[in-house]
Q: What sequence folds into this?
């Protein structure tokens, strides 16, 4: 889980009631709109506006989500019914929990999370799960018993959910010729850990354990994918492409596959320039070199799922996909982080039976309640309202004393923020942290260009900067944003960029 580490801004809200407008033909934007926000949850209001204006359908959309974080959390105390009150919903969302409500509302039924090789919160592969209202508590819950959800008490079996919506969640790793998952050993370990619970019921159906197959000697197995779509159908395809293989490696066999622009229906050159993107045009030769340097490892799952689909899809990009920090490392000392890790350590279920999962959730709920109460009491200098083990209480007191003696530079800590930080420090894996070099950033942008050029055009693009919270390094965000906008214009032609974060700053 990730949280904002700065005080929440006042956010504008938007209300949209369901209508039958989705029965009418969808409208098409003259130029592809690109909404750029600061906090990622703020993209949802622009998606809802596009639904209300009939540029997006009311239900059944796919989101292609590039991010170092899944953003698939749920606010623990969120009532499921809030999802249908758009104004209230948008005012209560945060950066880590804005996607699940849209899934429960039915606006989207498929999320493809494309992650960089250093991210490890969810296992690779396809999962069919259900999102619904808990019959006893009325809270929004999900039927995927992964530690990502179990550790935050967000799991519920399908028979405990009402108004459940079936959704598909894909997790795919994007690697390049200079960024490979094998270079991040903790990621390989987390795949095993994260797939600890593998159930074939309760609405959770894992199609694949991993989207990459490994041989016993550790070498990646090659897997050929042939998508035979007729060109006249408008569905573009890759033929006989191997995961981990650059398009240039097949030049002699599939020369036609290299004409990315033509296959994506994008003109090779255009004289039309969008005023909103003129400022972010960089050297064209540099962008071309980025694309040529990019590998296509891990892209075929995304391509195969979207190429043959006629459904409108949303392209969503968090700029921390290209370079990301764990901001809590700047707030807490190593000793303080170790105390948090010890206190918030998560004990997984002993097996995947219903009783074991239920016991795991109950035990975790009691643990978090104790810690939250103890932190508040120690911070305020009072006694905890609930019973807590003396040894654990001593550790909480030591943590609070250390933080009060050596406060962080901005001195904005309180018991709630410390508790939120603890939820990111359990032993299910810390937040991703990889500040990329310029070469690594360019390789990921180039790889994204290769992928997007082979997909249909999205209906809308949303971009989150994530720099105020330091998830995207503030000293890199402007450069990354400029290059990403330039890349999008090279793929889609004229784009209409709306820098929403500038309006909010004013």
A:
């Amino acid at each position: 889980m990730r949280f904002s580490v700065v005080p929440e801004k006042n956010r504008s809200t938007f209300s949209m009631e369901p209508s039958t407008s989705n029965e009418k033909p969808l409208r098409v934007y003259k130029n592809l709109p690109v909404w750029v926000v600061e906090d990622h949850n703020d993209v949802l209001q622009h998606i809802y506006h596009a639904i209300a204006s009939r540029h997006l359908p009311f239900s059944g959309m796919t989101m292609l989500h590039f991010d170092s974080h899944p953003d698939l959390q749920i606010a623990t105390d969120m009532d499921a019914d809030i999802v249908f009150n758009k104004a209230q919903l948008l005012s209560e969302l945060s950066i880590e929990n804005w996607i699940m409500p849209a899934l429960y509302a039915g606006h989207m039924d498929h999320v493809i999370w494309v992650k960089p090789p250093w991210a490890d919160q969810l296992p690779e592969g396809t999962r069919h799960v259900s999102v619904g209202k808990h019959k006893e508590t009325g809270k929004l819950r999900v039927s995927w018993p992964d530690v990502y959800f179990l550790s935050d008490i967000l799991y519920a079996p399908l028979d405990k959910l009402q108004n459940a919506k079936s959704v598909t969640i894909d997790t795919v790793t994007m690697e390049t010729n200079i960024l490979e998952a094998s270079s991040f050993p903790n990621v390989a370990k987390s795949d095993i850990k994260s797939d600890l619970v593998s159930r074939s019921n309760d609405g959770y159906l894992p199609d694949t354990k991993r989207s990459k197959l490994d041989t016993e000697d550790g070498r990646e197995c090659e897997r050929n994918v042939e998508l035979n779509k007729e060109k006249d159908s408008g569905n573009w395809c890759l033929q006989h492409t191997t995961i981990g293989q650059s398009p240039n490696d097949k030049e002699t066999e599939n020369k036609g596959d290299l004409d990315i622009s033509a296959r994506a229906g994008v003109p090779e050159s255009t004289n039309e320039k969008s005023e909103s993107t003129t400022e972010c045009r960089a050297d064209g030769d540099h962008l071309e070199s980025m694309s040529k340097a990019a590998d296509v490892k891990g892209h075929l799952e995304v391509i195969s799922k979207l190429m043959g689909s006629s459904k409108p899809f949303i392209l969503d990009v968090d700029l921390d996909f290209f370079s990301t920090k764990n901001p809590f490392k700047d707030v807490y000392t190593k000793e303080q982080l170790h105390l948090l890790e010890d206190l918030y350590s998560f004990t997984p279920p002993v097996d995947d039976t219903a009783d074991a999962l239920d016991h795991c959730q109950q035990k975790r709920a009691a643990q978090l309640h104790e810690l939250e109460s103890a932190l508040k009491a120690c911070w305020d200098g009072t006694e905890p309202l609930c019973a807590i083990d003396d040894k654990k209480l001593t550790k909480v007191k030591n943590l609070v004393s250390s933080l009060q003696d050596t406060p962080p530079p901005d001195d904005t800590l309180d018991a709630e923020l410390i508790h939120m930080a603890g939820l990111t420090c359990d032993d299910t894996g810390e937040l991703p942290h990889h500040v990329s070099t310029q070469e690594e950033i360019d390789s990921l942008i180039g790889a994204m260009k290769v992928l997007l050029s082979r997909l249909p055009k999205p209906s809308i693009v949303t971009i989150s900067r994530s720099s105020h919270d330091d998830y995207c390094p503030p000293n890199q965000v402007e450069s990354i944003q400029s290059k990403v906008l330039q890349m999008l214009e090279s793929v889609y032609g004229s784009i209409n960029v709306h820098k929403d974060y500038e309006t909010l700053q004013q």
Remarks:
- The mean pLDDT is 77.
- The longest helix spans residues 354-380.
- The chain has 16 helices and twelve strands.
- The longest strand covers residues 161-173.
